[in-house]
Design goal:
With 79 residues, this protein is an all-alpha fold. It is built from three helices and no strands. The chain folds into two domains: 39 residues; 37 residues. The radius of gyration is 21 Å and the shape is elongated. The termini are far apart.
Length: 79
Amino acid sequence: MKAIMVVFILAGGMFGLILLLDFIMGTAPNLLILKALNPFRVMEPAEYVIVFLFALFFCIRLLKSYFKKKKKQNESQTN
Protein backbone atom coordinates (compact mmCIF):
# COMPACT_ATOMS: atom_id res chain seq x y z
CA MET A 1 0.00 0.00 0.00
CA LYS A 2 2.87 2.35 0.82
CA ALA A 3 4.49 1.70 -2.54
CA ILE A 4 1.29 2.58 -4.38
CA MET A 5 0.93 5.81 -2.41
CA VAL A 6 4.55 6.74 -3.14
CA VAL A 7 4.00 6.15 -6.85
CA PHE A 8 0.86 8.33 -6.85
CA ILE A 9 2.54 11.09 -4.85
CA LEU A 10 5.58 11.13 -7.14
CA ALA A 11 3.42 11.03 -10.28
CA GLY A 12 1.25 13.87 -8.98
CA GLY A 13 4.30 15.91 -8.05
CA MET A 14 5.89 15.41 -11.46
CA PHE A 15 2.63 16.26 -13.21
CA GLY A 16 2.37 19.43 -11.12
CA LEU A 17 5.97 20.33 -11.94
CA ILE A 18 5.31 19.87 -15.66
CA LEU A 19 2.22 22.10 -15.45
CA LEU A 20 4.12 24.74 -13.48
CA LEU A 21 7.05 24.81 -15.91
CA ASP A 22 4.74 25.06 -18.91
CA PHE A 23 2.84 27.88 -17.21
CA ILE A 24 6.08 29.74 -16.47
CA MET A 25 7.18 29.33 -20.12
CA GLY A 26 3.99 31.03 -21.21
CA THR A 27 1.85 28.18 -22.52
CA ALA A 28 -1.80 29.09 -22.81
CA PRO A 29 -3.71 27.94 -19.71
CA ASN A 30 -6.25 25.97 -21.75
CA LEU A 31 -3.41 23.94 -23.35
CA LEU A 32 -1.49 23.13 -20.17
CA ILE A 33 -3.26 19.88 -19.30
CA LEU A 34 -3.54 18.76 -22.93
CA LYS A 35 0.19 19.25 -23.41
CA ALA A 36 1.02 17.40 -20.19
CA LEU A 37 -1.27 14.45 -20.97
CA ASN A 38 -0.15 14.04 -24.58
CA PRO A 39 3.67 14.26 -24.62
CA PHE A 40 3.95 12.69 -28.08
CA ARG A 41 2.37 15.77 -29.65
CA VAL A 42 5.43 17.86 -28.86
CA MET A 43 8.09 15.28 -29.75
CA GLU A 44 10.66 15.75 -32.47
CA PRO A 45 11.23 13.00 -35.08
CA ALA A 46 14.54 12.04 -33.45
CA GLU A 47 12.73 11.52 -30.15
CA TYR A 48 10.26 9.19 -31.86
CA VAL A 49 13.20 7.10 -33.06
CA ILE A 50 14.66 6.95 -29.54
CA VAL A 51 11.31 5.90 -28.03
CA PHE A 52 10.89 3.25 -30.74
CA LEU A 53 14.41 1.89 -30.16
CA PHE A 54 13.81 1.78 -26.41
CA ALA A 55 10.57 -0.16 -26.90
CA LEU A 56 12.26 -2.50 -29.39
CA PHE A 57 15.15 -3.12 -26.98
CA PHE A 58 12.69 -3.82 -24.16
CA CYS A 59 10.72 -6.30 -26.29
CA ILE A 60 13.87 -8.09 -27.45
CA ARG A 61 15.10 -8.50 -23.87
CA LEU A 62 11.67 -9.72 -22.80
CA LEU A 63 11.50 -12.30 -25.59
CA LYS A 64 15.08 -13.39 -24.94
CA SER A 65 14.38 -14.08 -21.27
CA TYR A 66 11.12 -15.85 -22.15
CA PHE A 67 12.81 -18.21 -24.60
CA LYS A 68 15.67 -18.79 -22.16
CA LYS A 69 13.21 -19.82 -19.44
CA LYS A 70 11.28 -21.97 -21.90
CA LYS A 71 14.47 -23.73 -23.01
CA LYS A 72 15.56 -24.29 -19.41
CA GLN A 73 12.12 -25.67 -18.55
CA ASN A 74 12.19 -28.05 -21.53
CA GLU A 75 15.68 -29.29 -20.59
CA SER A 76 14.59 -29.96 -17.01
CA GLN A 77 11.53 -31.91 -18.17
CA THR A 78 13.52 -34.15 -20.54
CA ASN A 79 16.08 -35.10 -17.84
